[in-house]
Amino acid sequence: MGQGVHVQELPGIGKRFDIDLERPDQRVSVVVHAAGGRDVYVFTGHDSDPTAVLELTEEQARKVGAVLAGTFFDG
Questions:
Q1: Which residues does 20 contact at the CB level (< 8 Å), separation at least 6?
Q2: CB burial class (10 A; 0-12, 13-18, 19+) of residue 15?
Q3: 45 CB contacts (<8 Å, ≥6 apart)?
Q4: pTM of the model
Q5: Cα-based torsion angle of the residue sequence 27, 42, 32, 56 in order, rounded to the nearest 10 degrees
Q6: Which of 13, 22, 18, 14 is nearest to 1 (CA)?
Q7: Cα(2)–Cα(34) distance, rounded to whole angstroms?
Q8: Secondary structure string (H, E, C) spanning the chain
Q9: CB pairs under 8 A, 24+ apart, for 6-12?
Q10: What is the pLDDT of residue 16?
Q11: Which candidate, 45, 65, 49, places its Cα nearest to that of 57?
Q12: How far apart (Å, rounded) are the C-alpha atoms in residues 18 and 43?
């Protein structure tokens, strides 16, 4: 995948995308479920437990992705 994104197959679940934020104290992982949902895990510090977890539907994930990509238009 793209530089700084590591993909891991999760058998029976889907795929996990670990995103390198270029900071040793911050990390984001996104699990894309085969059934369609998305889980976003935010890690701060060096703890192995996430600081925050968001469970998103496909539609919610598209909205968040559009805002982050700068393609969301209020119309």
A1: 4, 5, 6, 27
A2: middle
A3: 25, 51
A4: 0.84
A5: -150
A6: 18
A7: 21
A8: CCCCEEEEEECCCEEEEEEECCCCCEEEEEEEECCCCEEEEEEECCCCCCCEEEEECHHHHHHHHHHHHCCCCCC
A9: none
A10: 97
A11: 65
A12: 11
Q: For residues 47 and 51, what is the distance between their CA atoms, to the nearest angstrom?
A: 9
Q: Which of 55, 15, 57 is nearest to 39 (CA)?
A: 55
Tokens of 4: 């700084």
CA dist 30 and 67 (Å) reads 16
| Residue-wise pLDDT tens digits, 13-71 | 999 999 989 888 899 999 999 999 999 999 998 888 999 999 999 999 999 999 989 98
